[in-house]
Records
---
Amino acid sequence: MADKKKRDFSPEPMGCLIGPNSNPNRPRVKCSMFELVPDAFDGKSLKIGEESPTKRRQNKAQNGKAEPEIAKEPTPPPQQETEEPLVAQNTVPQEARPWDNVDKSAQTRLLIKGGRIVNDDQSFDGDIYIEDGHIKQIGQNLVIPGGSRTIDAKGKLVIPGGIDPHVHFQFPFMGTVSADDFYSGTKAALAGGTTMIIDFVLEKSDSLLDSYEKWRGRADPKVCCDYGLHVGVTSWNENTPKEMEILTKDKGVNSFKMFLAYRDVFMLEDDELYQSFLTCKALGAVAQVHAENGKIIEQKQQEIVNMGILGPEGHELSRPEEVEVEATQRAITIANQSNCPLYVVHVMSKGAAAAVSSARRKGNIVFGEAIAAGLGTDGTHYYNKCWRHSAGHVLSPPLRPDPTTPGCLMDLLANNDLQVAATDHCVFNADQKALGKDDFRCIPNGVNGVEDRMSIVWEKGVQSGKMDPCRFVAVTSTNAAKIFNIYPQKGRIAVGSDADLVIWDPEKTRVISAKTHHSAVDFNIFEGMEVHGVPLVVISNGNVVLEDEQLRVTQGVGRFVPMNCWPEYVYGRVLGREKANRPCKVERDPYTGPVVEANIQPVSNAKTFTNPILPEPGSAAFYHNRPKTSSGGRNLHDSSFALSGAQYDDKSPKRPHTRVNNPPGGKSTGLW
Ligand code: URP
Ligand code: ZN
Ligand code: ZN
């Protein structure tokens, strides 16, 4: 039997496992065999001289001020053949202090004039007045304070800032750390018109709470835009539900991602998945799933390696569409059995999308997420002769070689069979991808998207005539805000909402390239693609961060956005379903006839789980476990009955009957 290649997915590279550029003395060589895009490194290395981080730090020390960073045009190629490593940490720790050097009132009071305002449900012409990070007025001929700055949006669309609910910044994964940290990642997001991202707390760890704190520690000082966190549930034990409860009640987390792939790293077994879904439902959290059959993938990987296929094409060959479809269907079934709404992340194939779509048509509460990569390109790239190009497209589930897949996913997104366009942005430089140069199983999984998502969806969705601008807003912003319960604070242009806005030029075009993008990675899966739809002005929390093709961002000004449980958009139908589908006992006389002699005992192989946050299944409390609302009332997502006949208010003191003499609608005893 062929040797099974030992893979390392350990989150933090261990002493003996040297990650890319882990030797600070080893400079990365330009024009290596992996460099596909000439000049792709330009403008992304640490700046030398006046622009260097050290110099900026010195300036800061002298002035006592942190300068907002101005993204410059790419600098001419340096003469020497080496440059400093492009690792995630190439940012300057700066104090979060935006716009110290400009007139505050002019920056915090903005009038966006003459644009066409587009929400998910309607568009109209109007002006928007912004003050202190919020939308204060919308309409025509607004009366606004003097000293406000006016931005002309005539002939342009004004849309809610994009929300990308699936990114991995600074992610320790497969022996290395993804190349965009929370600074370069959020900077890239803003450059593309995305004003909020949701990252994943994700590692194999004994404590979800410790991991959560670790992620907050990484993100808080670096984010340039608002962000939220999902938490990956990567193992199951008695503490897990308790920790999930604390995360939802005290830490602003309302969603958990479970994996059916990455065996021995993140993968849960089916019964554990069921427990996790029951727990999500009890907490009112959103259950997310990475749907691929991890055990079959492991077998297939070995088969493909045994055939001598070690290049990136082996990645797709060992994770065929059917393996994604099976896991998607399984997750949908298990979610339905636990009456838990489900969000399927990165739907990559027609078959998986069809599974989501047909479940929705049967009434299941399932949401499907497409990603920019799956909408904008395809898996034929795995057969490219250039190893780096091919490896640059490796992510899981993989892009599908069927070239009709992206168009089909876009059709489904346009028609609400899928709801969200995210990215799964998780990037690795050439030397990081090269960990798998001799074995596709070791290629770090992940591709870019956060910067180009809005343009890709516009080009393939709106420009192609598949969706209108309202649907564009729905899939790039509003639906994510509704699902993750931050609507209408985010995802809508309305009075009171956060001033996260984009002035969008639907006619303007640009050509996507690693040479010009703001992400720290040296590769772009959309290289050379010309797209319509360009953000002209990006406003994040009332601050203009992109204007005249200049990006002005400040590290650490982004805020953590707590997300509450029980999103109406997700849980609105759950109570009704619980009522309609509850098991029903048949009352009958016992059987009193003869019973044949037998040696067998009833056996159950069912693994028993102790779940401290779930009441005994079937007990009255099982149906009455929702916390009271903030005003102390009954949570309307809670069922008001149980099989036992118990009522939600059984324990409340009985009230005397009150005769209503004049009920609303009039007396029934009078003569009319
Ligand atoms: O290839 C991927 N998708 N990398 C990030 C981890 C995940 O599964 O989302
Ligand atoms: Zn995933
Ligand atoms: Zn992901």
---
Amino acid sequence: MGMTNTANNSFFESVQRNFDKAAQFTRFDQGILAQIKACNSILRVKFPVKIGDSIEVIEAYRVQHSHHKLPCKGGIRFSMEVDQEEVMALAALMTYKCAIVNVPFGGGKGGIKIDSRKYSAFELEKITRRYTSELCKKNFIGPGIDVPAPDYGTGAREMSWIVDTYSSLNPNNIDAQACVTGKPVSQGGVRGRTEATGLGVFFGVREACSFQDDMEKLGLTTGIAGKRVIVQGLGNVGYHAAKYFQEAGAKLVGLIEYNGAIYDENGLDVDQVQAHRQTTGGILNYPGAINFSNPAEGLEQACDILIPAALESVIHKDNADRIQAKIVGEAANGPLTSEADVILNNKGILVIPDIYLNAGGVTVSYFEWLKNLSHVRYGRLEKRFEENMYNELIDIIESTTGKRVSDLERKTILRGPDEIDLVHSGLEDTMIGSYREIRDIYKNREGVEDLRTAAFICAIDKIGVAYEELGIFP
Ligand code: NAD
């Protein structure tokens, strides 16, 4: 993407600008607002790792943006664009995100400046474990201190290296598994975390599309079925989002990867495109689709919903005017520059902001952390009890009405919840509830003109009260 330090500088500034714009609509003292905005702690490390026969010096960060609630929480990214400003911007977004979805954490973020495609799995493991021991040394990781998670370029595999390294350095900590989330289920992960961010994106957009007056303003009908969707980035977030849109009856007309984009107005099948990508090394030349060798052109094609799910600043002042979507759902963090945000708002496009829309990941990470601290799987205690209760209830209904429930009906009603059911329904409830909170501010607070400002207000209101009631340590 060729991002420069200046671009990341403006990413952090644009987060600060969005904050300031929203802060005017809140009642807090300037000092409280300044404290909410500030990055509380920043760690930068450089460490040597043996790669082949040579030694490479790796640059890495962990930023704890806010300590108003602990632990801090936020992903770890592997990317060549990583620098201090980028990690600061992403950590700040995490603080606001957690507040919006009522997850009791402060924001944090980590980054290692590497191109993960250039290393073997063993080399990545060495880098990840060394990074984790640096975090341990500086007290920048721990179940009550700071809890990382996956982000761009990382997944369950990296999280399992982190939990193993942390646990071996903290053998007496019975809660050690809660030092990181997004782990494989065998290492203390929770079912449903892998797809959580993408599923949250789907729930959020579905909720936005359920309001008739909002859809009429965009010239759309309510519901997801039949809507034309373009997704940028077929990684963890983008792939799962695309899959849920497709399952809900949307038409995936465009898919974009770093080395090309494809478009088919009749709709693409995301799993078949993934299979094609596996065998050919890219998504281009998929049967029946139009190719764009410049992936950015994919963003500008006709659609109703555009989901950028790759990296920041992909929609900017030079291409914003050509965006044809009516709804932009920010699955990635910071995909619009501030200039692009203004242009899209002026065009009447509904932008669903990152600090709300991609919060499904941190929401389910919270469930995973709770699972680790309670040392028990969700559903283990109540599943059978609930099944027995429903069974009795159906018996009573049958004997009082004199009618029999079919075997299939009985089986459906009798199912007590598994972990995955509870996680998905907790996520769905969170995404619906938070959208309504933000929309309510957007519709009812005088002068608020977009959902992003409303989302920031929602966050500032909650964090401001927390700081006021915390008092200031003398
Ligand atoms: P990922 O590494 O799993 O996937 C990213 C995908 O984007 C990869 O397939 C990559 O090839 C592709 N890509 C890179 N550059 C591109 C370009 N120019 N055009 C099109 N595609 C490109 O990462 P992820 O975890 O899915 O994260 C994606 C975004 O979502 C990031 O902004 C991240 O901060 C955000 N996010 C992730 C999570 C999470 O739980 N993983 C949570 C919240 C937000």
---
Amino acid sequence: MRVAVYPGTFDPITNGHLDILERAVNLFDQVIIAIAEDNYKQTLFTLEERRYLVEQACKHLPRMEVRTFDGLLIDFVQSINANVIVRGLRAVSDFEYEMQMAMMNKKLNHNVETIFLMSASKYSFLSSSIIKQVALLDGSIKGLVPVEVEEALKGKYMLKAGTREG
Ligand code: ADP
């Protein structure tokens, strides 16, 4: 059984993430989307919110499961008997960091392979952080994130604006 883990912060999930996931489920028997708990990154959405948004966005996908994890990714991968890590590559700028991570993970567990899927060109500029920046300034993010994410971002930033004013 070929089980792959697609890890990330997913703060929040975008259509770029979804595209990678949709392609990964066609390649493996099972794909576990693994949402990292708040580690060194300050996240806008809580772990439970990120999980909910991922679950909503992935309802249509077969053979996949949503999990959360903390600590070392490679320990999580081992604990569920998976043998592949899937990562998306957008631009050359992703490459150096991703190569370093893949090599370190290989060093920590040589039975686990990291494979990279190239981002679809229409999403290659897309990141969770640029989505948050545009949403904060009330720009349109239609077609770039699932509708639930669009709504959730509106809610978050309205709440923040309310707190600032109040
Ligand atoms: P991390 O905090 O680990 O970088 P992210 O949630 O930002 O997690 O991203 C998870 C994975 O999805 C990474 O492999 C990242 O390169 C990939 N990814 C992010 N945005 C896109 C996109 N627009 N197209 C393809 N892959 C993407």
---
Amino acid sequence: MISVVGSLNLDLVAGVPHHPVPGETVLGGDIAEHPGGKGANQAVAAARLGGRVGFVGRVGDDEAGRAMTEAVRVQGVDTRHLAVTPGVPTGRAMIAVSPEGENTIIVSPGANSRLSEADCESAADQLRNAGVTVLQQEVPDEANHAAARLAGGTVLYNPAPAVAGAVPPPQVDILVPNRTELAALAGCEVPRTVEEVTAAARRLRGAAAVVVTLGGDGALVLEGSAHRHVPAFPVRPVDTTAAGDCFCGALAVALDEGRTLEQAVLWAAAAAALSTTRAGAQSSLARRGEVAQFLEQHGAGR
Ligand code: ADP
């Protein structure tokens, strides 16, 4: 099984004619509410793709918390280690989208910021038995470090969102940053070319493998001294929100099923490419059958 330790947010999305400057009020469009948060997105991605998934996280004792819990539960995610924090609101992301499609996002972590070492200890059985444990950076370091310590299987760490100076737990087996997150970890400029990405990823110490996601340029896999570029599948993207989350969830499922890292990256790239062809975050996430069909269409078999 797969254990995801991480965040759940209620995403509040409104269109704006332009982004406000300090002191300015702008009138936006109607608010749309969607389930989100990197932890929840990755858990739902893994569940949709056929993984047996348990979640470790926190919501507030409010309507949003109940709705976010239900959103992951109906996808088949085990929520027994999803705790309720009295007196603290559920995490929310306030997202303004300009007509050019540019986002500004304010995340209020709320209950996510209360996830603790003790919470992970309460979920020790789940973490110990998981074939893959998936972590991101929307919950406190303390929780991530405890979860990595308790994890019995492969530890996959998505250092997102980028936090300068963040130190992944020493037990991490596979780091999965995008270019910006890689720059934050390696302490360098955002690398552009595959050669620059390879050089930056080589500076990371600790994890046995690094998989750098490169958007429409695919992914770069570094394992020991070897590296390989996996090109992106050719699709017409509509909305790349949660492509990285889909990729991480899919990678966890494939690794939990015993595929090699290279096979797993190819499968994850297919699932993530599919997710970019649809709008939204959790609503865009691919299902297992679709990935198999997509791979066949692209001559990559199962
Ligand atoms: P993030 O959303 O975390 O920034 P990326 O943008 O790197 O992550 O996307 C994650 C993965 O999704 C990529 O490695 C790639 O496999 C797939 N992907 C993203 N954008 C595209 C695209 N335009 N075409 C095909 N695949 C894509």
